[in-house]
């Protein structure tokens, strides 16, 4: 103890202040070192609290976005169904020779098609389309063909 007192007496006030502050700093570091990971515990608690709040907000936003996604997928499905329905209905009003030709060929499986002629005519600003057929086959098959042709959902 005598040596410390002699050492401190030989120091000027500025050196004494620096020495005391160095000792206090070492004491603080030793005190924190005794308690393992003291600063990590403090930072970990604050980080966990902030992460927990952010995690809850993210979960709420995620659930909200999933609800919106399900609503939008349902809406897209209904819109696609409407679009498909409208395309089918619009196709009925379009004049497509290949479409009518395929339908007639599908219906006339047991018949022999001699001629299919498509024609167009305008009368009084109204546009008319005509299909002329020349078929050979059994009378019963011809009647079935005419009946199926009348029941087609194209007109």
Automatic annotation (TrEMBL):
Keyword tags: Membrane, Transmembrane, Transmembrane helix
Q: Where are the transmembrane segments?
A: 17-35
Protein name, per record: Periplasmic protein
Biological source species:
Campylobacter jejuni
Q: What is the lineage of its organism?
A: Bacteria, Pseudomonadati, Campylobacterota, Epsilonproteobacteria, Campylobacterales
